[in-house]
Amino acid sequence: MFNRFILGMLLILSCSLTIAGCGGSGSTNGTLTITAPATVTAGKSFQATANFSSPKGVQAMPVSFTASDPAIIAGSEADTNSAGVATVQLLAANIINADKTVRITAQAGGLTSSATVTIKANKLTFNAPAAGTQTATAGSPVTFFFTGTPLVTYTNADGEYLGSIKEITLRVYNKTSGVNNVLWQDNLTTETYLAVNPKTFQTDTTGSLPFLGVLVSATAPAAGTTSDYAVDIELSVTDPNFEPIVKHGLITFSITGQ
To answer: What is the DSSP string of 136-161?
Structure first.
């Protein structure tokens, strides 16, 4: 009789450790289903929910939400409501160098459910100016001034301002033979790349470099000939938590000697 009593108490205790009844897969008799958006813009918050259902009814319980890359999305926790739904607000990291797919997993008791979310990376854009052309006396120096509307922008994936001033670094990565000099112009300040390369600029409140200009000088070729030139400019944004965002922009021009 005593042994039967002990066995009965153990069975009751085992069932009390479950969330909604005894038996089933894992320690929980029921299902857990996570819902999250398919895509999210970097730097923005989004909502994820987990729905717990059971034929034996639901009760309040904690649900943890974790990400496969916590540097991109930090985890969180919420309790289910009377309908068995737990809701959290999650935040996608602001600076990533490429779109990133992250798996979010909800867990409660012995149940788990996962969904994938693609974080759309910020956009660093070089708005290439039209190619320049000039005719000049053979052997004479020729200077081109390139600007844009603007030349460089840095926004989120939706083209929106990121919420604070950012630093963008420009570097002369490569240039064709015959290009004598490249100069950075920022508002009223001009510096040669021979002295400052790379050069760091700050965006305005729209995420652009409105006062950026690039001056390029070369020598006109022999009379009756045309030479094509190009300058490859590397743009980058860095962040201590992620690989830098790196883009390249090309400035092109041609000179005809006379």
So the answer is: E-TT-EEEEEE--SSSEEEE-TTS--
